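step: validate -> pass
step: tokenize input -> pass
step: predict -> running
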Amino acid sequence: MDERKTVEEPTRIAAERPHDDGGQNAGSGNEYGEQMLSLEEIGDAFANLRVVNPHAEKQMSASLERYGQMSPVVVCRNAEGGYELLDGFKRLRASRALGKISLRVRALKLGVRAAKAALLCLNWVARSVNDLEEGWVVHALCREDGLTQVEVGHLLGRDRSWVSRRLSLVERLSDEVQSQLRLGLITGTMGRELARVPRGTQERVLAVVSEQCLGSREVVLLVDLLLASSREKQEQILRSPREALSAQEKSPAKVVRDPRLAKVGNQLLVELSRMEWVCARIVSAVGPPGLSQLRPADVLVLAPAFGQAYRAGHRASQALKDALSAVQGQQDDIVQQS
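step: predict -> pass
step: emit ->
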């Protein structure tokens, strides 16, 4: 079987989400149909291509315990004649934890390469797969299965630049960072930020993040600081990361005048930089740690201010959206005329 032809239309495969058809589709097309399998029969060799989300796992476990299995998981046959899971890793892990014996599955006839492609396609519909997981699949297809980036793009219905970006993201990350991402010990945002740091430094930064219990936003600021600092300054930041972050948040970064801009342009650059700084402070302040520290009396006083700030932020967001659209249009005109 030509595995690439098996997934000629990834969007078609993605659209075919698991549904209960009473086994009427058994043996048709690229499907074996629905059936019951014991948990021992379902392999999870592709689990290393997905991120573990502890919070989502807990919700899935509660849902299974309360409502039972509402839709089948998706599997494919492996080379030994067994079954490998493609979609439903949270359900499988939750079922194992709850001591369940079997799961209802939808079995597809797919080769190894097509199975990896289907793993993404089945999750693109629900948008439950992130760019790191996409990168792991792309990496597996290129480095393990020997496909070119063009072939991977054709298989997944994406262009070569998309494939190249996903591959680069994964290959910039150290093995330790990827391991912690897969286990759900750090977030996808943290992983993407660590990818900006040289591989040789990532594990040290990761250790600091774990020791200091830094959140995603703090990791973004920390990486920004490191990349903007000299080697000597980086050592100071890593020795006392919270002090460095605290000092950074007390005042907005000084915006260096851009010689390419006129006076009005530089004034706007300053205002945009200040807005970005203020927004970052607000996001940090109104997150769970900040809100949990408020007293009931504080909430009553702050409620109107929240509303006013929200409306002001919405107006600013719409103005920036319109400005961005206009600027991009002018940019296209300049490119076409040049």
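step: describe -> Residues 1-28 have pLDDT under 50 and may be disordered.
step: cleanup -> pass
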